[in-house]
Amino acid sequence: MTKQIILLFFIILVLVGCSRFNNRISSEDVESSNIKNETKISIEEIKKNYIEEEILNIKQINENIVLVESQIETFANRFDIYNLDTGDKDTLPTMPEYVTLHSIENENYLIFLSSGKNSETNIGTFPNFIRCIRVKEEPNSENDFIAIREELVCDIGESISSGSKTCSNLSNGIVTMDSLQVVFEPIKGKESVFFAATTDIPPTKVHYDESSHLVYIDIEVEEMSENFNNAIESCKNENIKKISVTRKGNITRLILDIEDNVKTYKVRKKRMANSIFFEIYFGF
């Protein structure tokens, strides 16, 4: 009988303890829920953050993640990503370039297409992809993403352009097995203009003539070295049959007779200590 009383007493103690534990957890849950409600932000509240900027678009990625595109006049467009549950905000590292949203892999990985132009200077790049990837998650930080750049692979019929400085000398052309490099150096006596601010290639446009299957590269450059023609005359490239050059006024035109199976190309710009060049690759 005594053993039964002791066992009953022990069971009562366990039940009371469990009840108190459950009550404590429930209390903590309520407290946590209250905190969550205090920090939660709504889309209407987000809109109030943009006083000077015009909101161009608000895109809901999922239940609690929102992407806001905004812009101040004369500045590049900007993308901010919000967590509605926590109120956390991160500005994606695309500025000062003008970009469009290309795709959303998930809330931690977004891909943008840059035009290559930006709002801070005339000097830019050729169009490229900017891959924004989250590398940390800090509530009080707005720079949890990094940007990884990747050259844009263009269809052969797509035209692209870049460049801003006409004051240079088209000094050299280098044909490799898989690319064509076009090199620019300062004009003698105008080195300060060439290197001022940031060195850039001359205005350059790449476009394609479907009827002749020729690629034209038009370059607005003040001078062209006499050796340039000789440098690219003996073209040995797996995707280019022949390269010819014409010049009218300040426009130098490179005419590329490409192989029939070429379907794509990409262009990159590189700066060296005493020169700058762009490089074009063709693909299938």
How would you portray this structure in words?
By secondary structure, the chain is α+β, with helices and mostly antiparallel strands. It has helices at residues 2-39, 43-47, 191-195, 227-233, and strands at 54-60, 65-71, 78-83, 89-91, 97-106, 109-118, 128-134, 145-151, 154-155, 160-162, 169-175, 179-185, 204-209, 214-220, 223-224, 240-248, 251-258, 264-271, 276-283. The protein has four helices and 19 strands. A hairpin with a 5-residue loop joins strand 3 and strand 4 (89-91). The longest helix is centred in the N-terminal third of the chain and has 38 residues, at 2-39. Residues 1-37 have low confidence and may be disordered.
DSSP helix fraction: 10-25%
Number of helices: 4
Overall average pLDDT: 85
Name the helix and strand elements from N-terminus to C-terminus, one letter apiece: HHEEEEEEEEEEEEHEEEHEEEE
Quick gist of this model?
The protein is α+β, with helices and mostly antiparallel strands and 284 residues long. The chain is built from 4 helices and 19 strands. The chain is elongated and about 65 Å long.
Write the layout of secondary structure elements.
Blueprint: H1 2-39, H2 43-47, E1 54-60, E2 65-71, E3 78-83, E4 89-91, E5 97-106, E6 109-118, E7 128-134, E8 145-151, E9 154-155, E10 160-162, E11 169-175, E12 179-185, H3 191-195, E13 204-209, E14 214-220, E15 223-224, H4 227-233, E16 240-248, E17 251-258, E18 264-271, E19 276-283
Parallel strand pairs: 11-15
Antiparallel strand pairs: 1-2, 2-3, 3-4, 5-6, 6-7, 7-8, 9-18, 10-13, 11-12, 12-19, 13-14, 14-17, 16-17, 18-19
